[in-house]
Amino acid sequence: EDGIRDIGVPGVQTCALPISSCKRLDLKVESIIGLLFRRTLDLTTLIVDQPEIVLQRKQKANNQKANRSIADVQHQLFDLFDLLKAENVRIRDGALRINEGERYFSINHIHFAVDGFILENKSGALIDPFQGNTSFELQRPDIHLPDSSVRVALHNLYLDKSNGNLQIDSFSLRFQDEDLEDAGIQLASLSVNGFDWQQFLERGSIQV
After folding, report:
1. Alpha helices for the chain (secondary structure H)
2. Residue 134 belongs to what H/E stretch?
3. Dihedral sign from CA coordinates of 79, 81, 87, 91
4. What is the pLDDT of residues 163-191, one digit of tens each?
5. Whose CA is closest to 136, among 114, 117, 116?
6. Helix, strand, coil proportions of the chain in percent (round to 5)?
7. Nearest 5°: CA angle at 57, between 54 and 63?
8. Pairing relation of β-strands 165-176 and 143-144?
9. Which of 10, 57, 80, 130 to pair with 71, CA 20 to 30 A apart?
């Protein structure tokens, strides 16, 4: 259960991974030759049980928050690999924490599954790497926002990339209004069709 801190590839700088701990890591590599000599990582299986990921949100020179999208993460991966492939990726019951000075955002009970993933450094343009069935689910997560006066409760969220459906069950948001009175919204359920996956990859934002 030790934290996964560094991974090295010949010819490139060591990259620090933000996984502080995990209960189980199952990693099966198709070819070690490609990893050593061709900057290619071809996985048949990547299963991580209960990973805890901790990130530090950086500040720009003008003290503005530096937002990061999946596209930024892809470009960092290209410093390590020219080709990254995986057939069976599973993240089970993961947890994420993003520190912002003395404040932080955290969420747990994250489940993620991908049946086909390929990321290749060709033209530098962003291409959707999730080629196979892809799903994302939150199961009764504990959610902490940087503004501790805002409270969020969620029973379940499920996103299926293949059909663009987003399903949310039992969501509530509580906060204090201008008169310091408790206010908020509550939804029994919400279904959304047409989730824009490509925009999420490029900008890190959700549009429906």
Report:
1. 32-37, 70-77, 197-203
2. strand 134-139
3. negative
4. 888 899 999 999 877 777 788 889 899 88
5. 114
6. 10, 50, 40
7. 165
8. unpaired
9. 10
Q: For residue 154, which amino acid is it?
A: L
Q: Can you tell me the distance from the alpha carbon of 158 to that of 51, in angstroms, rounded to the nearest whole number?
A: 19
Residue found under tokens 């990254």: 84
Instruction: Using alpha carbons, select from 70, 193, 43, 81 the residue that is nearest to residue 129.
Output: 70
Three-state secondary-structure class, residue 71: helix
Could you report the per-residue pLDDT of 141-166, keeping only the tens digit for each?
999 999 888 999 999 999 998 888 88
For 67-83, give one letter per residue: b (16+ CB within 10 A) or e. eebbeeebeeebebbeb
List CB contacts of 198: < 8 A, sequence separation 6 or more.
Answer: 128
Q: Coil, helix or strand for 37? A: helix
